[in-house]
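Give me the 3D structure for Glutathione S-transferase family protein.
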Amino acid sequence: MLALYYYPGNASLLPHMMLREIGAEFELRLVDRGQNVQKSAEYLKLNPNGRIPVLVDGDLVLFETAAVALHLADKFPQAGLAPAVGTSERAEFYKWMIHLTNTPQAEYRAWFYPHEHVSDEATAPAVKQAANERLTRMFDVISEQLGDKPWLLGDRFSAADLFLFMLIRWGRGMPRPPRNLPNLNALAERVLARPAVQKVLEAEGIKAPVF
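Predicted structure for Glutathione S-transferase family protein (211 residues):
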């Protein structure tokens, strides 16, 4: 059986939503960040970076959120969370998955943990402010690319929309949250309305307002 190591609201939210959309049998294993379990010797055997999530699939132990997501999309093609391999639509899907993990997801590290990016703690607020400015521009670009389409791939829902939903949620504490962009808010509302996503939020104890 599949096992997902998670913490509520963390990057594990994406594979958790995918697993619920797929309808696969899986086990949720809490990694209690409040107790720094992600830095424990046992967990570091699974992910030497000490970050969440990890997916265990038989003998496969996989970390990195986007890698887990792509593996699930490939393992369960019948779920339709990604277009067929070799198509132009699949290429667009790759584009969005890589962009979201390399650009806004990576930038959130500086927003949430500015102290990790400085040697002088006094400069951490400036790092956080700069990260906010970069994230704001990134979401502006995503909004422009989305336009009036219902989903990132046009009329087709995919795991990329779940990914974007998670990133919109993470920005709820920003001076200008991503939800303030009407089309991003509309996409997030559409994702939020999905029964599988509602099950994830209930299982993780995530209460409204979600984003």
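The CA atoms of residues 42 and 116 lie 24 Å apart. Let me know if you want a second pass.
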